[in-house]
Amino acid sequence: MGFGVLEDSYLAKPPGTSNVGENPQSSSDTASVKDPKKDGDIILVPQPSDSPNDPLNWSSAWKNSQMLILAFSSGVTIALGPMISPGLVVISKQYDVDLDTVSAFTVGTIVLFTGSVTFFTASGANIWGKRPFFVISTILLLISNIWGYFANIIAGFIIESLGVPAVFGLAAVAYCLVLPAMYFVVVETTYTRPQDNAKAVVLGDLEADKKGGAQDYWTELEEKPVREPKEAYVSQLRLFRGRLSQQSFWKGALKPFPLIAFPAVLFSTFVYASFFCWLLMIGVLSVSIFAAPPYSLNPAQIGLTNLPLAIGALIFTPISGWMADAVPMWLAKRNNGIYEPEFRLVLMAIAVPLSTAGFIGFGISTEKGLPLAWCLVWITMHSVAVPFASQAAISYVIDCHTQDANQAFVTINFVKALLSFIASTISNGLLEKYGPKPLFIGIAMLNLGISTLTIPSYIYGKRLRSWTRVITHGDSERSESTVAKVEAYDGIDACLANLKVPPIRSLEDATLYNRETTGTDGGEPRVRPAFPDGQQTFLGIADSRGVRDDRYHAALRHIGQQTREKGIDAALEGVPWGPGGGPRHAGGYPSAGRPAVLRPPGHRPAVCCAGRLSTVCIFIGVHENGMPVSLSVQPTAWKEAELVKWDCAIEDQLNRKNGWRTTPTYGNLHVKIIPLEGLD
Question: Could you tell me the pTM of the whole model?
Answer without folding.
Answer: 0.65
